[in-house]
Amino acid sequence: MTRARAALMLCGLALLCGCSTVSSWMPFSSSAAPSAAAACPSAAILHSLSQTAVFPPGGSHEPVGVAFYGILSEVNAKCDQAAGAMHVAFDVIVIGERGPAIGKGDTVDLQYFVAVTGSDQTILNKRSFAVRIAIPAGAKRAGVTDHIEETIPLAGRTPGDLSILLGFQQTPDVIDFYKHFRGRSM
Predict the structure, then answer these.
(1) Residue 28 · residue 61 · CB < 8 Å
(2) What is the pTM of this model?
(3) Dihedral sign, CA of 58, 60, 65, 70?
(4) Beta strand ranges found along 46-140 (DSSP E)
(5) What is the overall mean pLDDT for the chain?
(6) How many CA atoms lie within 13 A of 124 on its CB side?
(7) Cα(149)–Cα(70) distance, rounded to whole angstroms?
(8) What are phi and psi of 156, to 5 degrees?
(9) Would you give the distance in Å from CA 174 to the centre of its chain?
(10) CA–CA separation, 155 vs 126, rounded Å?
């Protein structure tokens, strides 16, 4: 059970992106144009890391003390393969939701990660992405579609040997919060 949970957590590390187009890991050289659409590694949001909570400074780490919740809602990936690498374009839907604590401001800054794992669930690469969500006055929630482009070296692997996992980068306070309280209060 512990190994299965760890494998699921690793799968969710790779799908989330920042608010702008970002290229990393190994950019294409100008002479290597991407080929036609290729099979993508599986991409998934880790269930256990699909939500996060943001507390105001000095606030209570209980459900009534949450200023904002972050929710990783969906990820879509499109791939092209060229020169021993996989170019992946991600669109990640990230939602910010007001919590019950009265906070200052109408924006929430969230951080999520995208991780690439091998067939043995070893993390081959992991990057964090920041996203800012503005929630209009009077609205309970708002969302953005974060677009990221990454190039993943295949190093002799096939795309089917890889998994892409996404999840929120959790602080110790948030981990403790979710150990004691399940999900966000509605």
Answers:
(1) no
(2) 0.75
(3) positive
(4) 51-54, 68-82, 85-98, 107-117, 123-134
(5) 79
(6) 20
(7) 22
(8) 85, -5
(9) 16
(10) 16
